[in-house]
């Protein structure tokens, strides 16, 4: 395949000029008012935001007893939601950094909102461990702040690992996302037609002049950050996996958990990126820069992750049999015949069976089919997170402590409420910042012209 033909996959031929690319991405922000659909979506998210704030306020005033936790299943929706959201958050920066280091040109159209997804998802994830604390008002005890009593954090606690993992990851991701915006913020500054826009984007652009020196520093810095991002992301979600694997509970004490959690994060994260890309492409009319080829390659990545996840599940079953430990074998039997068996069958269907449709090009290029598969994957990955908690804690070593988890309305509130908060963040973001990287898409256009 020639270089010109390859480039055509990532950008529509009619949009090859630099001016057309800038206009396609910047005009929805600077020259078009929000439409009715945007306002309706914004209003639709407000009840979810209020539910989230109400749920947080309730647990701060009443206590964790509002959820369905009991003396055995002490981790419930809060920890499962934390793992699910941090997985989605990890994927954004991982996707962007790995694609940058491997010089994948199709990254240009998706990296900006994938990195923004990281910030929103990681921020939401950070709420859940605090909600789940028995005394959330003292969450600041997790930090080694100076105090007269010398009460330092318990470093053997997984909560402390999570605190530092989330904090370092959010700070790094914010820097990675913002510095990637600098050239585009300068473009927005130069195209601004109002004084307020010139001041806002001028201040955020930090004096970017598009000079050769600026580009040299930018390229070096961005690639260095990407190289640091890959081990950081892997370590963050490995730490989440070690929250479970460092225990002695059957079904958790497995060395496969850290890499298994990292692949699961990439799996659910790519599925979320696909859903976001479909809505952004439609809502901002970006069909010229987010092409069917982008969805085709993302579908292939999800297919690969599905195969790895299926192998991971099979490895879990095999090792329980091969290890010969009665408690481990009993937990696997509980997967298939226990109180939550129907959720486990749904998990296998969502994560292993349904994504096999992505072997067919039609499923990868049909946006309706791809959106449905992506939603199914994220539902299945949430089932996986909740069942990691429920199955083991409901069926541990001591038979006298076997209990099932019963969901409460509060659990449902903290499950669905943050989804609205996540959508609200994106609705605000697309009205302020360019959601697709203009300078990287222009680079593809330049290469296309050179190849032609």
Task: Report on this structure.
It is found in: Cell membrane. It comes from Methylobacterium tardum. This is Polysulfide reductase NrfD. The chain crosses the membrane at residues 37-62, 82-101, 113-138, 158-182, 226-248, 260-280, 301-322, 342-360, 367-390, 410-433. The protein is mainly α and 452 residues long. Helix content is 71%, strand content 0%. Helix 10 runs antiparallel to helix 15. The longest helix has 34 residues, at 158-191. The two termini are 13 Å apart.
Give a quick rundown of the structure.
This protein is mainly α and 452 residues long. It is built from 17 helices and no strands.
Helix content: over 70%
Given helix and strand content, the structural type is: mainly alpha
N-to-C span: 13 Å
The geometry reads as globular
Major β-sheet profile: none
Task: Round the Cα radius of gyration to an integer and report it.
Answer: 23 Å
Number of strands: 0
The unreliable regions are 1-8
Mean pLDDT score? 87
What quaternary form is this? single chain
Order of helices and strands: HHHHHHHHHHHHHHHHH
* Number of separate helices: 17
**Strand portion, in percent?**
under 5%
Topology:
Layout: H1 3-8, H2 18-30, H3 36-61, H4 77-101, H5 111-125, H6 127-132, H7 158-191, H8 195-204, H9 212-245, H10 257-283, H11 292-323, H12 326-337, H13 341-353, H14 361-365, H15 367-394, H16 409-429, H17 438-451
Helix pairs in contact: 2-17, 3-16, 4-5, 4-9, 4-10, 4-15, 5-7, 5-16, 7-8, 7-9, 9-10, 10-11, 10-15, 11-12, 12-13, 13-15
């Amino acid at each position: 395949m020639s270089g010109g033909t390859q480039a055509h996959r990532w950008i529509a031929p009619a949009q090859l000029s630099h001016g057309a690319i800038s206009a396609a991405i910047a005009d929805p922000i600077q020259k078009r008012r929000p439409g009715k659909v945007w306002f309706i979506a914004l209003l639709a998210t407000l009840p979810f935001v209020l539910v989230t704030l109400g749920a947080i306020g309730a647990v701060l005033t009443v206590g964790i007893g509002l959820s369905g936790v009991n003396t055995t299943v002490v981790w419930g929706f809060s920890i499962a939601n934390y793992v699910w959201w941090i997985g989605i958050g990890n994927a954004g920066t991982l996707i962007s950094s790995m694609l940058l280091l491997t010089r994948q040109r199709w990254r240009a159209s998706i990296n900006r909102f994938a990195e923004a997804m990281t910030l929103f998802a990681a921020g939401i994830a950070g709420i859940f461990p605090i909600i789940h604390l028995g005394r959330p008002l003292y969450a600041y005890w997790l930090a080694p702040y100076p105090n007269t009593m010398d009460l330092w954090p318990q470093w053997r606690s997984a909560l402390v690992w999570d605190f530092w993992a989330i904090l370092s990851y959010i700070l790094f991701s914010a820097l990675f996302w913002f510095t990637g915006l600098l050239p585009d913020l300068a473009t927005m500054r130069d195209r601004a037609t109002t004084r307020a826009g010139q001041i806002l984007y001028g201040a955020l652009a930090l004096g970017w002049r598009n000079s050769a020196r600026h580009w040299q520093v930018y390229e070096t810095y961005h690639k260095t950050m990407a190289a640091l991002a890959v081990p950081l992301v892997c370590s963050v979600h490995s730490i989440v996996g070690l929250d479970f694997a460092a225990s002695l509970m059957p079904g958790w004490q497995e060395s496969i958990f850290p890499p298994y959690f990292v692949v699961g994060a990439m799996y659910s994260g790519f599925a979320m990126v696909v859903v976001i890309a479909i809505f952004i492409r439609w809502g901002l009319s970006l069909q010229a820069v987010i092409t069917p080829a982008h969805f085709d390659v993302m579908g292939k990545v999800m297919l690969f992750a599905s195969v790895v996840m299926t192998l991971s599940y099979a490895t879990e079953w095999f090792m329980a049999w091969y290890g010969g430990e009665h408690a481990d074998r009993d937990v696997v039997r509980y997967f298939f015949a226990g109180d939550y068996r129907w959720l486990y069958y749904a998990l296998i269907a969502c994560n292993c069976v349904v994504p096999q449709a992505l072997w067919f090009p039609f499923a990868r290029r049909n946006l309706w089919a791809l959106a449905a598969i992506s939603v199914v994957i994220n539902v299945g990955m949430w089932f996986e997170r909740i069942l990691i908690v429920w199955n083991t804690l409901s069926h541990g070593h001591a038979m006298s402590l076997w209990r099932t988890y019963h969901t409460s309305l509060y659990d449902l509130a903290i499950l669905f409420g943050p989804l609205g908060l996540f959508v609200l963040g994106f609705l605000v973001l697309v009205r302020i910042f360019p959601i697709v990287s203009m300078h990287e898409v222009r680079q593809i256009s330049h290469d296309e012209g050179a190849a032609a």
